[in-house]
Amino acid sequence: MYKPIALIILFLSFYLSYCQVSITKEPSWIIKEEYNPNAVAPENSLYGGTHVLLYTEQVHVDREEAYIKNVAKAVEYSGIQTISSVVADYDPSYQELRFHHIDVIRNGKRINRLNQQDIQTARRETNAESYIYDGSISAFVNIPDVRIGDIVIYSYSVKGFNPIQKNKFSTSFVLNSTQPIDRISAHVFSKNPLHYKMLNSDLVADLKKRGGINHYKWFQKNVPAILMEEQTPSWYIQNETVLVTEYDSWDQVIDWGKNIFTFQEPLSQELQQAISEIETNNKTEGERIKSALSFVQNEVRYLSISSGIGGYKPNPPNKVMEQRFGDCKDKSVLFATMLNQMGIEAHPTLVNTSLKQELSNLTPSSKIFDHCIVKVVDENGSTLWYDPTLTDQGGTYANTYTPDYRYGLVLDQNMSDLDTITDFRSNMIETFSTFTLEKDGLGAELEVRTHYYEGEADFMRSVFRNNSKDLIQQELMSYYTDNYGRVSSLAPPTIEDDTIKNEFLLLERYHLDSIWSPSVEKTNTMNLSIFPNGLISNLSMPTQLQRLTPYALTYPFVRKEHIKVKLAEAIRVKPENVTINSDYFYYDFNSKYNAKEKIIDLDYYYKHQNDHVPVSGFDTYYNDMVKLDQNIGYLIFTNNDTLTSSTYSLGYSLGTIIGIGIIIAIPVGLIALIVIFVVRYNKRKTANPS
Predict the structure, then answer these.
(1) How far apart are CA 402 and CA 384, in angstroms?
(2) Band of the pLDDT at 622, cuts 50, 70, 90?
(3) What fold characterizes domain 253-419?
(4) What predicted TM-score, i.e. pTM, was given to this entire model?
(5) How big is the CA angle at 181 (ends 201 and 155), to the nearest 5 degrees?
(6) Which H helix or E strand runs over 256?
(7) In the CATH hierarchy, which top-level class contains the domain 2-246?
(8) Cα(260)–Cα(321) distance, integer angstroms
(9) Shortest CA distance to 311 belongs to which of 330, 297, 324?
(10) Is the backbone peptide bond immediately before 556 cis, with ω within 30 degrees of 0?
(11) Within a 10 A sphere around the Cβ of 675, how many other Cβ atoms?
(12) Quick one: which of 414, 480, 402 has its CA closest to 662?
């Protein structure tokens, strides 16, 4: 009985979505932009074998319409694939999609390729694996018989703005691409005056006013392709970008947010009971904050269903409590409501997980946020930040880890600008590895104790709670087998989890059948190579030595590694120390030898000083990395004839080791186990807060 009803509902949803896609004439208000069919692409600048002859994006604010026209030429075979598909996205809850043209120009002849029966629709849902469903629909047309030299022209418009914006307009336009563009333009028509800001460009808007309508125009010709560089920070905006907004200041955006995030309904009995239990079971304010956070994080599952106004407006706290699921807005409002009911100051706060520090350089807008957290002010006046979408977080209320978001828009009537989100935690991982070498063989016993702190502890706690012990042990064994050959486990991996201190310990013990390998350079010599695996797995040597953009670094990032090698016989050892105090990282290595105990101790410390290297400092950073590269490995070798031994530092190429992907990687099994968690943890970058 239920299946037919579900099928009917599904059919109707797709039918209604399809009915919102039509073929019409181009709007009368647009500016007719011409293209040059004989334009020649700059040499060595084609990406995907395509030359864009014209791209124009035009918005009429008062009509709530957006128009796009694209004209591109297939210059190489690879370009055929690029221009043979037309895709347009829209939200069926408040928008209609109208195709105007899909034409192929071949030898000066125009061939119409736009037919209603060729338009297909499908739900976009690119973040479904992260439990994010935004309700958008993709309409796409596959163009048949496209050849080299053909010019494909398409245009369409989308009617309807999200009503949650309360008639306050803001948007952005990108004026260059990874493809060369012969002509590109952006137009905005608005009865009200607008503010705009250029990023990475000195272009000035051409402003005209006709019939009471302001017409803003940005136009460029012969725009070269830009090169996207490796390891560019997510917050760095490389394109020439126009930011347009009707907001005069951030306090107007705060007023908008306060309006849609405020609910006047009385709290439900279920919610009141949950709050009462927290107050009864926790005597101090700090304990109540932490208990409420744990409840929202772990008892209310994450699920984002955010089509239409749901992309911006949270559900009422009573509804979230009843359904026991919600997105970041829902969970933040519920958490803040619970604290407010207990007399604790708390405010939902909008953030952007990618833009971070760049957020303060942008124009005020309600559309640039993709996540929501909570600001709390305790009884001592201390400001605390919490992310209710995280789970399994340890620590007290005063030291709960919050990701590095940098800036947030606090929905507090006493605020008038962005607030700075400060966090002083280091996210350290500290590893203690002990190799006990066999006296009459090539094997060794290996004990590894890895301590995870703060955010890293939260991360590992979730990994172990969401995977079986058998699977974890199997994958860890696979890792050591790949690196050392025959390996046997001396004991199952064990963990110790101190949730109050937020420290997580993983203990492993193995027997390695053979840890030595014959020397390639010297006959009758065996080598034992020692690496700080946890550190090297997070380092990489830049491959591009000339940069135009900053170089991203993991931040905060602190690694300590202590390696103890218990030898079977005495050897000659020279103590060593290497310190690199760079503007961008600090590295310290010390080795010492206890001749009586026949033990070598290797101690490594590494810390990133910042989250990026600016272009001006890249040469210095690279040179310091080369120095680090030359001092990060340690080699012990034994001559089988004379039975004498010595040690010295060995410079391994980070690029080579990482390329080989053997001993420097963190356990392959752990990588497999945490991939799903990483995706869920990081992939929140939708167009709206969710």
Answers:
(1) 9
(2) very high
(3) C8orf32 fold (3.10.620)
(4) 0.86
(5) 110
(6) helix 250-261
(7) mainly beta
(8) 18
(9) 330
(10) yes
(11) 10
(12) 480
